[in-house]
Specification:
mainly beta, 4-stranded antiparallel beta sheet, 1 helix, about 40% strand
């Protein structure tokens, strides 16, 4: 009779939290931060421009942070009752790693172009308060 040996190992998964799956978006474009994390730009189901940033580390609760990039500009330039919506956007990353954004806000049938240029791919704090220029 031969003896059998069973090998086993276990590993505790850390920093795992089941979270909501990203909703279907009208448009989506992916870039990368200076640290290699994903940076997703999209128009949400509410017709707003969003940045979804991959976050790592122990201070990150879900692994992703979503910021509305168009809401503050729409509220600033148009009355709240106008219902300004983001109809299109473009995102580009240059060889120097700077990130440039363009968005089109539609209000009362008129389109308004906004640019947000020269943003850092390493320090993404600008996502919380993008500097849009009409």
């Amino acid at each position: 009779m031969s003896a059998y040996k069973i090998d086993y190992s276990t590993e505790l998964m850390t920093n795992y939290l089941q979270a909501e799956i990203m909703r279907p978006e009208a448009e989506i474009q992916a870039l990368q931060t200076g640290t290699g994390s994903a940076l997703l730009f999209s128009i949400g189901t509410d017709n707003s421009l969003y940045a979804t940033v991959e976050e790592t580390g122990k201070d990150s609760h879900k692994g992703w942070r979503r910021c509305n990039l168009s809401e503050a500009q729409a509220a600033k330039d148009f009355p709240a009752a106008s219902g300004a919506t983001c109809t299109s956007f473009a995102a580009a990353q240059c060889t120097d790693q700077s990130i440039h954004l363009a968005m089109v806000l539609r209000e009362s049938g008129r389109d308004h172009l906004y640019l947000c240029l020269g943003n850092s791919a390493t320090d993404t704090s600008w996502i919380d308060h993008p500097a849009w220029v009409a």
